[in-house]
Amino acid sequence: MSVTIEKKGISIGRAEDNDHHDWNDLVERSPQTNPFHYREALEVQADHADATLHRLVGYKGQEPVGLFPIFETRKGGMNMAFSPAPGLWVPYLGPALLNHRKLKRRKRERRNKRFVEGCLDWIERELGPKYTQIRPDGAYRDIRPFEWNDYDIDVRHTYSVDLTPSEEDVLMSFSSDARNNIRTDGDYRVYEGGPEEIEAIISQVRARHEAQDESYGVTPAFVTDLYERLPEGTVRPYACEVAGEIAGGMVALESDDTVYRWQGGAKHDHDLPVNDLVDWEIMTDATERGIERYDLVGANEERLCGYKAKFGPELQSYYTMEKGTKVTNALSSVYKKFR
User: Fold this and answer.
1) Which one, 102, 132, 195, 330, has the greatest CB density within 10 A?
2) pTM
């Protein structure tokens, strides 16, 4: 049965129960979304996380005010709610606002509060989760409605490289060893590929995690599904080929103004700065397409920050919001480790 929550002029319900707008059109209109918000990406996440997808949309009359995709899973006999889907190393999802920039601060904050609280009411009423975890895109800044509704807030960090200066100026902002690595001569090529490169890149990362006895929920099938179902140019697998074999690579994601360094960069045995070369190729290609920043997707693990920091990035924050009992918090620990 279709259920709609009314919150002081804001109505919250499933997108499929409302034919006012196409979901993907709303995704492209919000400044707080990323490629994982697309309907096709949400469906792929649901399939590979064995979760039930609920695409919530909020309206003030006929005007869309926000999107909030949520995934329902059942673990240990208890319902749990996530955004993004658990275990797939998706960095950000959660709520995203629309048509809010035109509002003055008081009205903007009031609308955000009512939209979020309406969504949380819907989740509580329809799903009744014992544990909920929400991790919005960094562009979604006002997370206070979650705090006011008894969510625990964890500040997380990522790095962002500004790609708007000239190529030479971007390069000169790097550390000297990064510049030297990028200028390396040798018998190699760095290129953008497809499913074959995805298979190689993700398999290398999986092997690296297995060698360290660490879990890694990303599979080549998951990434290939995203590659095939999202708009062309959204998923970009970059590989470095040495002596006829793929030495390493990175699966990047691209939106209107941002390219995301998502999965890849595994250690290798080649006497070549493979990861530096791949990262530079991603940046220079993105600059030619008018992309403004390179999100390095995570600055939370100390052992990885040294490599990423040499590209002269800005440190930026995003948030994880959680609510649940101690038992379900313990069950959720497997979902908390993201780069």
Assistant:
1) 132
2) 0.93
